[in-house]
Amino acid sequence: MARRKRKKRKSFIGQFFKIVISMVLIFVVFAGASIFAYTKISGPGTSQSEEAGTKTGGNKVSLLDSLTGKGITLNVAVMGVDKEETRTDVLFVVHFDSKSKKLAVLSVPRDTRVEITNELYNYLSENGKYIPSGRVCKINEVHAYAGSERGDYFTVLQLEELLGVKIDNYVKITTEGFRNVVDAVGGVDVYVPQDMDYEDPYQDLYIHLKEGQQHLDGDKAEQLVRFRHYPEGDVARVRVQQMFLKELAKKMLSTESIIKNLPSLISVMYNEVTTDFTLTDCVKYAGYVDDIDMDNVTMETVPGVGQYVGNVSYYVLYEDQLESVVRRTFYSDDVKDKDGHISSEGKNIEVANGTNTTGLAGKNQELLISEGFNVTAATTYQGEQQDKTRIIVYAEGMGYDLLEYYPDAEIIVDSEQLTGNTDNNTGEPTDILIILGNNDSGETSENDGSNEVSAE
Predict the structure, then answer these.
(1) 63-88 pLDDT tens trace
(2) Reported confidence tier of residue 98, pLDDT bands at 50, 70, 90
(3) Virtual CA dihedral for 84, 86, 89, 91, nearest 10 degrees?
(4) Using alpha carbons only, how large is the chain's radius of gyration in Å?
(5) What are phi and psi of 303, to 5 degrees?
(6) Cα dihedral sign, 210-213-216-221
(7) For residue range 335-372, what is the model confidence (pLDDT) as tens digits?
(8) At what angle do helices 262-272 and 175-184 cross, to 10 degrees?
(9) Which of 14, 236, 429, 447 is the most buried (most CB within 10 A)?
(10) Residues 223-229: contacts with CB within 8 Å, 24+ apart?
(11) Are 400 and 318 in contact (CB under 8 A)?
């Protein structure tokens, strides 16, 4: 039987980030991490104030704010460009929350089909340039069409229009810079998911890796992140890139690793990385490096599918599913308590009846609403009948407070299953999906004398 227990409401937190990432995921970490290590060695008063690049946005945060832990929001676009520094072969946006210490990464596949922004269209027209297909192209081509001087700026604008969020800064690194990043930290240990064999002399690309756990230096790491021939296509490629990034970040964020490799890291940061972060920014954010918890990282990819449009292969977005992914990445208030759990209050919950007991989802909806939860829909599960209740969530640590009502339920972290789930009445995306099983159907033993429905 379900137990009723009132929850404590958690406030929505302001957000922040720190610096991060390198090509496939982590390199302004260099700026922050390097300055962080430098200040530990030399003290905070020895840094130079030096501007670098043109700001695309900017989160105005004072040094005092960073020292006192004020919550801020910072979204950083990360671009990995090809050898000629024309196309963005790797593209994602990083978001960090200073209070929840949540690091979220949203990847955008290079072949994503987009219509260029009005700003880029006008810029090209004024300079006598055009796109062969009119205004439609792959997102990795935006940088190339805009040119070396304005490519960063227009790529950021394209991401802002695509995702509907403000991007504060950008970081860009070349394939050579990426190799040097990995070598600077002494390589990374990862599991290569399959044998990889591919050669393209035109791109000076030679990939030969064997499946299994291994130590990758910069050259082999580049082979891993540039390999494209997966059964699932570009989505699998992004997944492997994200996996590598996470391992790279763990190593880079080790204070011991930073201090040990400080000279190499600083050299790579200032010689191989293009960014509109200033040295002053790096000093401001350095105090947050310790807050990054790589076990509290969510990585997602904009939803879509690879398909041909005409004779061109694109990654075509699922526009109706994009909102929920963006919401989870940039706007969720996922503050973990001392046990590492995230409150379900304030989340959009859908209850689906996975049994043959009529009206069960509605009864559970009424109960959870009476307990202060936001249940946006009661539906019938379209899959096969469930023996056990499952609670589907998008991040580790979620759903545990719901075990008070479904003590035998299984919690499953699967953001893909939630993507696209929306309430038909409100259009709100689903954050938590409870699929009721027969163990919560209300059927009881004749000997217990109970007529109550479990989790009514």
Answers:
(1) 445 444 456 678 889 888 876 778 88
(2) confident
(3) 130
(4) 24
(5) -70, 140
(6) positive
(7) 777 888 888 988 899 999 999 999 999 999 999 999 99
(8) 170
(9) 429
(10) 223/196, 224/190, 224/192, 224/196, 225/23, 225/24, 225/80, 225/90, 225/178, 226/89, 226/175, 227/196, 227/198, 228/198, 229/196, 229/198
(11) no
Tokens of 427: 């259009």
278 closest CA partner among 289, 269, 267, 288: 269
The Cα–Cα gap between 36 and 38 comes to: 5
* CA dihedral (164, 170, 172, 178) positive or negative: negative
- Tell me how far apart the 2 most distant CA atoms of the chain are, in Å: 84
pTM of this prediction exceeds 0.90: no
**Measured between alpha carbons, how far is 152 from 79 in angstroms, rounded to an integer?**
9
Kindly report the three-state secondary structure assignment for every residue of the chain: CCCCCCCCCCCCCCCCCCCCEECCCEEHHHHHHHHHHHHHHHCHHHCCCCCCCCCCCCCCCCHHHHHHCCCCEEEEEEEEECCCCCCEEEEEEEEEECCCCCEEEEECCCCEEEECCHHHHHHHHHCCCCECCECEEEHHHHHHHHCCCCHHHHHHHHHHHHHCCCCCEEEEEEHHHHHHHHHHCCCEEEEECCCEEEEEHHHCEEEEECCEEEEECHHHHHHHHHCCCCCCCHHHHHHHHHHHHHHHHHHHCCHHHHHHCHHHHHHHHHHHEEECCCHHHHHHHHCCHHHCCHHHEEEEECCEEEEEECCEEEEEECHHHHHHHHHHHHCCCCCECCCCCECCCCCEEEEEECCCCCCHHHHHHHHHHHCCCEEEEEEECCCCCCCCCEEEECCCCECHHHHHCCCCCEEEECHHHHCCCECCCCCCECCEEEEECHHHCCCCCCCCCCCCCCCC
Residue 261: which residues within 8 A CB-CB, separation 6 or more? Answer: 184, 185, 186
Nearest by Cα to 398 from 93, 10, 71: 10
**Residue that the structure tokens 């501007």 belong to:** 51
pLDDT for residue 72: 62
Which token pair is 81?
A: 């460009």
